[in-house]
């Protein structure tokens, strides 16, 4: 198969289930039919886990750079110290360091277009503290010098972005501002168009307070969220809300929308996983490169027991590949745009936006 993507995979935490998931995933013949997988990690650690898990008929082709990759096999670039210590079931400073070394190495090659996309295996929660960052999003924002960045949870049934992410609950109201909401709506709308080829995305916006949609909007809804939504509409973004999170998910309103913007991470992630965790993965929006990650935890409690489920890592790998294809398609479309025709007499895009918003509202009220 020609023109397969070079897909980088970082090894995550060497003390968690990452290597088990990676080995199980790369053992599937179809993976090498779809892409050229390149693992950033340690051949020594990979061999150790293969022995611990008693996995036969699997090997990795050791290379020095992506240009040497064997298109018919899974490849590995040794980018950590051969003496890296594996301490099963424990996150340690050494395992966090090995996580970040592999991630930096892979990102450097991604920046140089030596690989096309990057997928991250499960990492320890403290790994990014070594880089004075509290999360992957914060770390990547610093690396690429941007604040217009957001993790988007993606599944077959729902996509979800966040105004605030890894922050303490008491700090959420201070960060839920008109400016931040508008920026996140703009980023989410752009990402849905460019990376998911959704021509006119419909975005639902959740409220901050639980009484939204009960005739008792709180101060944040009235003074912050609603004005931000109205500003977004003026820019042609089809944003609707704010909705009470409880009602929005219990009544399955998300089925009427292309994406949801939650005010903070915990508000949305539990509901997201209850809707569709099986096909879920995370995409990092707002970057010049394509980066995805599994939503699976390192699961230190089951390391070495052959109980890990690689589906989440598979989802993340497929997600990154899909986004890459969509971006390439959009670049081609922009080179050869179709002529624009006004499909509604005496109407403009703002008029159509208003009509479509009212149509969605009518569907929700039925």
Automatic annotation (TrEMBL):
First-level EC class: oxidoreductase
Molecular function GO terms recorded: 4-hydroxythreonine-4-phosphate dehydrogenase activity; metal ion binding; NAD binding
SUPFAM superfamilies: Isocitrate/Isopropylmalate dehydrogenase-like
The keyword Calcium is assigned to this record: no
Enzyme Commission no: 1.1.1.262
Pfam families in alphabetical order: PdxA
Coiled coil feature spans: none
Record keywords, A-Z: Metal-binding, NAD, Oxidoreductase
Top-level taxon in the UniProt lineage: Bacteria
Protein name: 4-hydroxythreonine-4-phosphate dehydrogenase
